Structure prediction request, 194 residues.
Amino acid sequence: MLRTRRTGSVILTTMLLATNAACGAAGGPKVGWSDDEGGGSLGPQLNVTLSLSGATTLAGDQTAAAPTNNGTIPASCAEYAKGSTGEEGRTFYVGAGLLDGPVDGRRVTLELWIEEYTGPGTYPKGQLVAPGSRPSIAVDGTVYGTWPDSTSSEVVTDDRGGGTWTFAKLATTGAGGLPGDAVDGTVTWTCRDA
Prediction:
């Protein structure tokens, strides 16, 4: 049941971003984040900076909407920092997943949630999850994910909606289902109110 809700929020975010892109491209009304031209708002915006080394290298930044697990749009960065509670009563912090464009010329998708989220603080690997899988970073279709024994992973969030995910040995699935090629690095994000 929770998986369905998680997928639904990702679909909602995708639909909102697609609507925003379509309106901007067609010269229609602005539906993006607030700007000097008086556009509407899709809630807080995250600026996401990635730095990867190892099997692939990547360094750059991109923007994303501040997502939730309950299909709502946070009203502010402070609200986003508190996490979101679904109908089942569990609170999660949902990291940026769908970025607004390429990073360093490459397609990147993030999968990172914090379960049993109690507000800004430090969260160990055991509390880091992802909808239907494990915390991961996909770069041009190659997925580097956490592994129980070999990956170190920690997230620190702040009361302004920002945070840092630090990891070592996020790895592909190699021969025999064992960890394959791996990357080390950080994903850092800051939040900007609309």
The longest strand covers residues 179-192. The CA atoms of residues 94 and 113 lie 5 Å apart. Residues 1-40 have pLDDT under 50 and may be disordered. Residues 2-25 form the longest helix (24 residues).
